[in-house]
Design brief:
The chain has helices spanning about 1-5, 10-20, 30-45, 50-55, 55-60, 65-70, 80-95, 100-115, 120-140, 145-160, 165-175, 190-210, 215-220, 240-245, 330-350, 350-360, 370-385, 390-405, 420-435, 440-464; strands spanning about 250-255, 260-265, 275, 280-285, 295. By secondary structure, the chain is mainly alpha-helical. The protein folds into three domains: about 5-145, no CATH class; about 215-235 and about 315-460, no CATH class; about 240-295, no CATH class. β1 and β2 form a beta hairpin. It is elongated, with a radius of gyration of 29 Å. The chain starts with a helix and ends with a helix.
Length: about 475
């Protein structure tokens, strides 16, 4: 630390030192050294990290050292890039007034969305947006005048930025505190709702910042109108065919005049009559191979397997409180966790396209946001019972799940067939849910320890 103060700022020795330092993985207590380096840069060129956001070429013209540091970041997925990002956030953005952030919001977003932007500019942009999001989350209470002004300014700025309309709509709703899934209206909100909203915000933040077509889940948030003809995750299958195919013997399907389907075993010809459990009419027939009037034979002959007639698009459903309800090969726990994530993403997308999406096959949903929130809260309650855990541990398990999804994403695949849907759901269970729910309390404890370690590390680095 003292050596840094002794080396002249324009010295080639300092450049060599920076190159060696930033090209390698960080070592213990390195955060304090990096903080000192960045503070020295800011002293030499006041506001240099804000300049990086708005005019990177001007920033590196002012500082050859920052230009060299930028070239050291070939890959942003490193511990060094993470450490620099956290240091910049804490040293230069954490104590800045919220209203001063407004002018830099647009450039920071563009740095992340536009191709070919310099690595250091991306790191500074992420640091800025992390602090920006934290501030706006803290202001979900009644806003002060300056915060309302900032939100209004940022909303206007969004209109001029080259981003997707869906992203602009989502961001505008959050800025105006009108996103129902995240909005806190009652100051006496209970802990359960706070835990749920923390999970919703994590799910939303992750998928909002990834490319719209980078994953099936991201499409539900960004391009929901393009998912109408896909096979939607966790939606029910053709249950009738699944049940009939579970019967090993051959069978022949008949239909009552009311539409109720029944089967005849063995040769497939009727030999006795019965009452339709749906309408009470006579089904079958007492004369061999002569069904009662109004009954229709659906299969020409006995069959072993019946073609599955799964529907594409979303299939509306009422809230189901059955602990063991699931679809296909998903376990009840996997089903509920994925079902909750999907309804967060649908509920956070634009209301009109979301409602059209939810109503494709039936009109169970009348308000997309309320419909999704009802399912989210129900899934949460069922999961607590399935896993026998508290709100806090369930929230930690979800945060651990989302972190794992970020670290190890599933292969990008659009689900255009029922078989592809089943395959995706199976991968989701095997890669994420199975390992995380093997011991839910251990998963929660491990994630809590990671949070504590990160907090302790940040505190130490700020004190050094």
């Amino acid at each position: 630390m003292r050596c840094l103060a002794l080396i002249p700022i324009e010295s080639d020795v300092l450049l060599s030192f920076y190159k060696k330092l930033f090209s390698n993985e960080p070592f213990p207590l390195m955060g304090a050294i990096i903080e000192r380096i960045f503070i020295k840069e800011d002293v030499e060129n006041e506001g240099i990290f804000f300049t990086i956001l708005t005019d990177f070429e001007e920033a590196v013209r002012q500082s050859a050292r920052l230009n060299l540091i930028n070239k050291c970041f070939g890959d942003l997925d490193t511990n060094m890039a993470t450490l620099c990002c956290d240091t910049i956030e804490q040293s230069f953005f954490m104590n800045e007034k919220l209203e001063n952030f407004a002018a830099f919001f647009g450039p920071a977003l563009e740095a992340l969305y536009k191709q070919g932007r310099p690595p250091l500019q991306k790191i500074v942009s992420i640091a800025f947006l992390k602090e920006f999001v934290r501030r706006f989350w803290d202001t979900s209470r009644e806003w002060r005048h300056s915060e309302v002004q900032s939100a209004d300014f940022l909303t206007k700025e969004l209109t001029g930025i080259n981003l997707s309309n869906s992203f602009k709509t989502i961001a505008t709703n959050i800025l105006s505190n009108k996103q129902p899934l995240l909005q806190i209206v009652n100051p006496e909100i209970n802990n359960t709702d706070l835990f749920i909203k923390s999970v919703i915000s994590h799910i939303f933040a992750f998928h909002a910042l990834v490319e719209p077509n980078s994953s099936q889940l991201a499409m539900y948030l960004h391009n929901i109108q393009n998912c109408q003809n896909m096979f939607i995750l966790t939606c029910m299958s053709d249950v009738v065919s699944m049940v009939l195919n579970a019967i090993p013997e051959v069978k022949t399907r008949y239909s009552c005049k009311c539409g109720y389907i029944y089967i005849v075993a063995e040769c497939g010809n009727v030999v006795q009559a019965g009452k339709c459990p749906n309408c009470g009419s006579t089904i079958g027939g007492t004369t061999y191979n002569k069904p009662e009037t109004g009954n229709t034979r659906l299969d020409a002959g006995p069959v072993h397997q019946i073609a599955v007639n799964d529907q594409s698009g979303y299939i509306g459903e009422t809230v189901n409180q059955d602990l063991y309800h699931s679809v296909r090969s998903l376990t009840p726990t996997s089903y509920r966790m994925l079902h909750l994530i999907i309804h967060v993403l649908i509920g956070a997308s634009a209301p009109q396209p979301a409602l059209a999406f939810l109503q494709k096959n039936n009109k169970v949903a009348l308000d997309s946001e309320k419909y999704c929130m009802d399912h989210i809260q129900n899934d949460w309650d069922v999961l607590k019972k399935l896993l026998n855990c508290s709100d806090a541990n369930l929230a930690l398990a979800f945060h651990s799940l989302i972190s794992l999804m970020m670290e190890k994403p599933l292969p990008n695949q659009q689900i255009n067939t029922s078989a592809e849907r089943t395959n995706w759901e199976t991968m989701f269970h095997n890669n994420y849910i199975a390992p995380l729910t093997k011991n839910i309390n251990e998963t929660a404890t491990n994630y809590r320890m990671k949070l504590d370690e990160a907090l302790t590390k940040n505190k130490k680095e700020r004190l050094e």
